[in-house]
Design a protein that fits this description.
The protein has 344 residues and is an alpha+beta fold. The chain is 44% helix and 12% strand.
Length: 344
């Protein structure tokens, strides 16, 4: 077992079952190394619920939500193992004390900002890579395989038989093949941390490449950002090609339509925040939220809950709180409007 991290020493499958307070049979059922949940069209054998939707880019998103018992095991892995292993310093997504704000901060006021996006982020991380990670953490192969099985999934083919109406049917064969391979499921509590840890080598290579070009590098999940001054601006097009090559070698592909080279003369934006001179929310987002809050005061909050959000008050409160962290002055003004809303 690795001496670097204070993770539990688990030497056998029996010890892993004991750690989970499961029987050996229950552990094998949850890990599903034989893929019964994928092969058998029996709802009781499946540990996930599925929801297909369309991304703004037009691509397909599959949310794989673990059922309560499996989710409990995944949370135990997250708390007991994954949280004790540090990711690369460039990673800012899904981490305590890091956020969109810390992701964007190194790129504020830079001469040029390069934004790149990974395609099919979670689905691109195969189960074999997850098992290899747990072996690297020091667990024997039998234990690593079971941990990997609990944290990965292969989506059954029949879930695509009745997709939503807004899904392009020509995209379904590729999506079905992608998600049929055991992968990190988007929706499991272990997936964000495992994704960060599995990208450690890629983050090291990209940080080194950025340093050689006198640039800064940060990553928030599948969003990559690089920025620099004159030296970086002179080589930024060639630099983006090198980034794509490194990511390809690491098993990922770049969503080239989303790649943006943003110089000072245009709005530089990352993860929904503007970074030209100071960090700020886009004016359109501020105006939209202000209009929603104002109409809540005038017409009542029910009139503005167009999406029928079950916790609309908390939803708006969170949006205002986020703005307060980014731009306290603007956030204070919107907080005053929010406080005037009459909630039933």
């Amino acid at each position: 077992m690795s001496n670097q991290w204070e993770i539990p020493a688990i030497a056998t499958a029996g010890e892993l079952a004991g750690w989970f307070l499961l029987s050996a049979g229950e552990l094998e059922w949850f890990a599903d190394l034989k893929g019964l949940g994928y092969k058998k069209n029996i709802a009781g054998l499946r540990h996930y619920r599925y929801r297909i939707s369309s991304k703004r880019s037009g691509d397909i998103r599959l949310i794989e939500a673990p059922k309560p018992r499996l989710k409990k095991l995944q949370r135990q892995i997250h708390t007991g193992i994954l949280q004790k292993i540090p990711p690369h310093p460039a990673a800012h997504g899904f981490l305590r004390a890091r956020s969109i704000r810390t992701f964007v901060a190194p790129h504020v006021g830079r001469r040029v900002v390069l934004r790149m996006d990974l395609r099919d982020f979670f689905a691109s991380i195969a189960a074999a890579r997850i098992r290899a990670f747990f072996r690297t953490a020091g667990y024997p192969e039998s234990v690593a395989n079971l941990l990997g099985g609990i944290c990965t999934n292969a989506a059954p083919r029949d879930i695509w038989s009745a997709p939503p109406l807004d899904i392009n049917p020509r995209q379904i064969p590729d999506a079905r093949a992608l998600y049929a391979r055991p992968h990190l499921p988007q929706g499991a509590p272990t997936s964000p941390a495992l994704a960060n840890l599995c990208l450690y080598r890629a983050d090291c290579r990209l940080a080194g490449l950025a340093k050689s070009a006198e640039a800064e590098y940060t990553r928030y999940a599948d969003d990559l950002a690089f920025s620099g001054g004159d030296a970086f601006e002179r080589c930024v097009e060639r630099f983006s090609t090198h980034v794509a090559a490194i990511l390809f070698e690491e098993g990922f592909s770049v969503h080239h339509r989303k790649t943006r080279i943003m110089r000072q003369g245009v709005r530089q934006h990352l993860a929904g925040l503007v970074s030209n001179r100071c960090m700020n929310v886009a004016r359109s987002d501020f105006d939209r939220l202000k209009a929603t809050l104002t109409n809540c005061v005038r017409l009542g909050p029910a009139s503005q809950n167009h999406s029928e959000h079950p916790a609309f008050r908390e939803h708006l409160d969170g949006r205002v709180a986020f703005l307060e962290t980014i731009n306290p002055a603007r956030g204070k003004r919107l907080r005053a409007v929010f406080d005037r809303i009459q909630w039933a």
